[in-house]
Write a structure and sequence with these properties.
The protein has helices at residues 2-8, 12-29, 33-36, 73-77, 94-107, 109-112, 121-126, 136-140, 143-152, 176-192, 202-205; strands at residues 79-80, 83-84. The chain has 210 residues and is mostly helical. It has 2 domains: 2-36; 73-192, Orthogonal Bundle (Cytochrome Bc1 Complex, Chain D, domain 2). Helix 5 (94-107) crosses helix 10 (176-192) and helix 9 packs across helix 10 (176-192). Bound molecules: heme C (HEC).
Length: 210
């Protein structure tokens, strides 16, 4: 017990030794200043190195970030030779429709209503008239029209007078795949309000009391 005690006791000489080690450790740690203060261009710093005087450089023309190549023109524009296409760029599965429903209810239902009639609290209180998807013009519209509208938004007002866009673009917030999924879901919404007995498989018509 006695031996253990003396081994761990801090004599003044020992304290001095430990103090030195600590001091040296601090001194070494401070060396990082050299790296920290190295000559480098900070964000938006000017620079005399480049002819235009800017330290920040524009992307080299043609640069494409990894995974961001948009090689499928239709998927990203909804246009075929400049005209809104009437096919989906990928297969519509149940999962795609469910994703479309979820995204529609997140982004669009606040204005257009869950059933797509343009009836919502925003419409009622916000003084705007979101389109109903159950009007003939939109029933006849190609599916690419919905993709183009979600991508670009709608501007029908006079910018001078009205000041704001009727519906803003969702291109930066909803991925192209999800914009198509929403378009497909709008088609399902349209059918849900405009179906006839012929749309029901014969063997299931009895369930409707027909
Ligand atoms: C902030 C409210 C608001 C939100 C949110 C909104 N819209 Fe709209 N939308 C409008 C208004 C207002 C119009 C009518 C524009 C006009 O006719 O001037 C419109 C028009 C449309 C039209 C009809 C375009 C045409 O051909 O006339 C479609 C389709 C549409 N919206 C789809 C969507 C979809 C899909 C979403 C969700 C991704 C969405 N909107 C989100 C307000 C909104």
């Amino acid at each position: 017990m006695q031996a253990l005690h003396s081994r761990w006791r801090l004599s003044p000489a020992r304290l001095l030794r430990y103090g030195w080690v600590g001091f040296l450790a601090l001194l070494l740690a401070a060396c990082h200043q050299d790296m920290y203060n190295q000559p480098k261009v900070q964000t938006y710093d000017p620079s005399t190195f480049f002819a235009d005087g800017r330290g920040s450089r524009p992307n080299v023309p043609g640069t494409v970030a990894v995974g961001a190549a948009q090689t499928d023109t239709y998927l990203y524009t909804g246009l075929i030779n400049g005209v809104e296409g009437d096919v989906m760029p990928f297969e519509v599965t149940r999962a795609v429709l469910e994703r479309g429903q979820q995204q529609y209810n997140i982004w669009c239902a606040v204005c257009h209503g869950e059933a797509g009639y343009g009836l919502s609290a925003v419409a009622q209180r916000g003084g705007i008239v979101p389109a109903s998807f159950h009007q003939q013009r939109l029933r006849d519209a190609p599916i690419g029209h919905f993709f183009v509208i979600i991508t670009n938004g709608v501007y029908r007002g006079d910018p001078e007078k009205d000041g704001y866009q009727s519906m803003y673009s969702y291109a930066s917030r909803i991925s192209a795949e999800d914009r198509w999924a929403i378009a497909a879901y709008i088609r399902a919404l349209q059918l849900s309000q405009n179906a006839t007995l012929e749309d029901v498989p014969p063997e299931q018509r009895a369930n409707l009391g027909q």
